[in-house]
Amino acid sequence: MPAEERRCPACGGEALKPLGEGRRTVVYEYVPAFFEKQVHVQEVLACACGRGVVTAPAPPKVVDKGEYGPGLLAHVVVSKCADAMPLHRLAQRMERGGVPMSRSTLTDLFHQSAQALLPLSSHLLQCIASAEVVWADETPLR
């Protein structure tokens, strides 16, 4: 509170003390997500003998030789599966966010993500098949 507003409304005094924690208000705000371009530099060292060169290992990737990180791949899968967003619309959003993207590239990324998650989905299906009772959506189907 500004200093000029710190006066008692009854007597005009300035000797005010806190009364409890204060009044809280909640405001929900939308902060748009953003894409980040990360540049990884691998150190290259040469030996003084002039015959040996050593290169630091590259950071691990979900897709070999891919230029998209695990967070972006997860975003593609969630947008397509959980949010039912068509890939052409997702490509437009990513373009607006500064990531050059085509629908065919997104399709490839989606399939590569599914391939990377295949061991997890196979294990999940085995767990479901071995259960005595399987709970599912209660929607009645014919």
Structural write-up:
The chain has 142 residues and is mainly α. It has a domain at 75-130. 35% of the residues lie in helices and 4% in strands. The chain is built from four helices and two strands. It has helices at 70-82, 87-96, 103-116, 118-130; strands at residues 44-46, 53-55. Strands 1-2 form a two-stranded antiparallel sheet. A hairpin with a 6-residue loop joins strand 1 (44-46) and strand 2 (53-55). Helix 1 (70-82) packs across helix 3. The N and C termini lie far apart (64 Å).
What's the layout of helices and strands?
Elements: E1 44-46, E2 53-55, H1 70-82, H2 87-96, H3 103-116, H4 118-130
Helix pairs in contact: 1-3
Shape label: extended
Category by helix and strand content: mainly alpha
* Main sheet attributes: strand count, strand direction, barrel closure: 2 strands, antiparallel
Order of helices and strands: EEHHHH
Q: How do the strands line up in the largest sheet? A: 1-2
Helicity level, as a percent range?
A: 25-40%
Distance between the termini: 64 Å
Number of strands: 2
Q: Bin the strand percentage.
A: under 5%
- Spans where pLDDT lies below 50 across 5 or more residues: none
Total helical segments: 4
pLDDT averaged residue by residue = 88
Evaluate the radius of gyration.
28 Å
